[in-house]
């Protein structure tokens, strides 16, 4: 019989509270939106404009929800993890895109029927009204963001360029709110509807500004972080040691990551998510990155003393998520960084096994540190090398069971390239490792 450990009870309760809050928020707000549709201030001109109005109301709510998902609220991030929130952000973004396409389409179809002109002739006709024109501009910008989010297009952008493109989301929000205030009939139904929409937008925008601007600025003014040392780990990987004041008050944990900027060395909009590659000790932080883009490659040339602006800590890939006494840590490539930090975390007690997947031993960043930790912690470390092929499938269910026979009785932490991570998760599901024992970080960030 499996007994509930305090860690499991605490983690389950924290995640359950977050899910309950999200569902309550969704259901209450959707109920209010449906009531607005049932009692409009003015009747729709025809069926097509009525459909457009329905889509428009839901579009406004989804846009506010999207803001909350990218606000990096500590309550949700610590309980669910930014990775899960970003997955929801991505799917909400596609919903937003289709609502942006369909809402104006039905509105213009309805007005073209009313004015007895063609759909395309109605576009410049409605665009003469400034609130409508602002809505059209916002819709076009949403299209740009959606196109750059498609995986085929995303691969053509550097992370920095992709992130900068997504900053137009904030322009979309401003244009969308102005459009709704001056054009939306549901906004003006009565005093309650106006109070609701203003309250929703103030809450969503306030949460965004608090999580993305106010808290990061206050924390960085308080901690005054600077580069203390830059250490080359290999030909294409480098570690940056950061010090500052009262870093213990950040309450950072092994397995978490920050969004890092280096003002004066890089442009302000160049921000990257890099994990802590060592367990934080309250006095310093260490990140390790591989030279993939221009920003990561430039870390090697950071002067000591460079100012550091860090947002975080973020992520739920921590020992707090542990539900079992024993642990399996799986890393791929530079995804070893949070795994290396977790390996050092003494709160991960019990039997430890580490699987580190690289193409060649020369690609194994921080391997020496992992070996030293394995000796100190009496843990097992397996370096899995070679090209993946039909004969070499290190993360197949059979191979995982062969390396770790009691895998179903362990918590499993995974971080690495997306294809490897998905392969590991498929095998874990095949092996019937419970979902609560699978902990993953993919670094799929929103804007």
UniProtKB/TrEMBL annotation:
<feature type="transmembrane region" description="Helical">
    <location>
        <begin position="164"/>
        <end position="182"/>
    </location>
</feature>
<keyword id="KW-0285">Flavoprotein</keyword>
<dbReference type="InterPro" id="IPR050415">
    <property type="entry name" value="MRET"/>
</dbReference>
<keyword id="KW-0479">Metal-binding</keyword>
<feature type="transmembrane region" description="Helical">
    <location>
        <begin position="91"/>
        <end position="112"/>
    </location>
</feature>
<keyword id="KW-0274">FAD</keyword>
<dbReference type="InterPro" id="IPR013130">
    <property type="entry name" value="Fe3_Rdtase_TM_dom"/>
</dbReference>
<keyword id="KW-0411">Iron-sulfur</keyword>
<keyword id="KW-1133">Transmembrane helix</keyword>
<feature type="domain" description="FAD-binding FR-type">
    <location>
        <begin position="220"/>
        <end position="320"/>
    </location>
</feature>
<dbReference type="InterPro" id="IPR017927">
    <property type="entry name" value="FAD-bd_FR_type"/>
</dbReference>
<keyword id="KW-0812">Transmembrane</keyword>
<feature type="transmembrane region" description="Helical">
    <location>
        <begin position="194"/>
        <end position="215"/>
    </location>
</feature>
<feature type="transmembrane region" description="Helical">
    <location>
        <begin position="50"/>
        <end position="70"/>
    </location>
</feature>
<dbReference type="InterPro" id="IPR017938">
    <property type="entry name" value="Riboflavin_synthase-like_b-brl"/>
</dbReference>
<dbReference type="InterPro" id="IPR001433">
    <property type="entry name" value="OxRdtase_FAD/NAD-bd"/>
</dbReference>
<keyword id="KW-0001">2Fe-2S</keyword>
<dbReference type="Pfam" id="PF00175">
    <property type="entry name" value="NAD_binding_1"/>
</dbReference>
<keyword id="KW-0408">Iron</keyword>
<keyword id="KW-0560">Oxidoreductase</keyword>
<feature type="transmembrane region" description="Helical">
    <location>
        <begin position="18"/>
        <end position="38"/>
    </location>
</feature>
<keyword id="KW-0472">Membrane</keyword>
<protein>
    <submittedName>
        <fullName>Ferredoxin reductase family protein</fullName>
    </submittedName>
</protein>
<dbReference type="Pfam" id="PF01794">
    <property type="entry name" value="Ferric_reduct"/>
</dbReference>
<dbReference type="InterPro" id="IPR039261">
    <property type="entry name" value="FNR_nucleotide-bd"/>
</dbReference>
<feature type="transmembrane region" description="Helical">
    <location>
        <begin position="132"/>
        <end position="152"/>
    </location>
</feature>
């Amino acid at each position: 019989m499996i007994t509930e450990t305090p860690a499991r009870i605490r983690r389950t309760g924290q995640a359950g509270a977050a899910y309950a809050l999200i569902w309550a928020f969704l259901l209450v707000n959707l109920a209010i939106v449906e009531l607005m549709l049932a009692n409009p201030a003015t009747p729709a001109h025809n069926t097509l404009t009525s459909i457009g109005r329905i889509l428009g109301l839901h579009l406004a709510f989804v846009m506010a929800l999207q803001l909350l998902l990218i606000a990096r609220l500590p309550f949700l991030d610590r309980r669910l993890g930014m990775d899960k929130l970003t997955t929801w952000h991505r799917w909400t973004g596609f919903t937003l895109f289709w609502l942006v396409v369909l809402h104006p389409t039905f509105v213009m179809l309805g007005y073209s029927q009313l004015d007895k002109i063609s759909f395309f002739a109605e576009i410049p006709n409605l665009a003469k009204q400034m609130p409508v024109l602002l809505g059209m501009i916002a819709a076009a910008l949403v299209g740009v963001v959606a196109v750059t989010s498609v995986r085929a297009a995303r691969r053509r952008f550097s992370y920095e360029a992709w992130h900068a493109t997504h900053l137009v989301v904030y322009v979309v929000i401003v244009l969308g709110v102005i459009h709704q205030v001056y054009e939306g009939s549901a906004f003006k139904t009565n005093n309650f509807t106006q109070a609701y929409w203003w309250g929703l937008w103030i809450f969503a925008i306030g949460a965004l500004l608090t999580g993305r601007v106010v808290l990061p600025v206050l924390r960085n003014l308080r901690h005054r972080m600077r580069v203390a040392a830059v250490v080359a780990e290999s030909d294409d990987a480098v570690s940056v040691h950061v010090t500052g004041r009262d870093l213990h008050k950040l309450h950072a944990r092994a397995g978490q990551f920050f969004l890092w900027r280096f003002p004066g060395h890089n442009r302000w909009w160049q921000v990257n998510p890099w994990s802590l590659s060592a367990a934080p000790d309250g006095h310093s932080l260490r990140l390790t990155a591989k030279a993939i883009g221009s920003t990561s490659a430039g870390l090697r040339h950071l002067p000591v003393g460079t100012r550091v602006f860090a947002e975080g800590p973020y992520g739920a890939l921590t020992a707090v998520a542990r539900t079992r006494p024993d642990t399996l840590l799986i890393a791929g490539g530079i995804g070893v960084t949070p795994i290396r930090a977790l390996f050092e975390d003494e709160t991960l007690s019990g039997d430890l096994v580490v699987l580190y997947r690289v193409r060649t031993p020369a690609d194994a960043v921080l391997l020496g540190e992992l070996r030293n930790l394995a000796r100190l912690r009496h843990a097992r470390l397996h370096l899995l090398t070679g090209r993946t092929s039909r004969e070499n499938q290190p993360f197949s269910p059979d191979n995982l069971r062969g390396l770790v026979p009691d895998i179903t009785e362990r918590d499993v932490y995974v971080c690495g390239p997306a294809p490897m991570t998905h392969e590991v998760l498929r095998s874990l599901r095949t092996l019937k490792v419970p979902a609560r024992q699978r902990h993953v970080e993919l670094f799929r960030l929103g804007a």
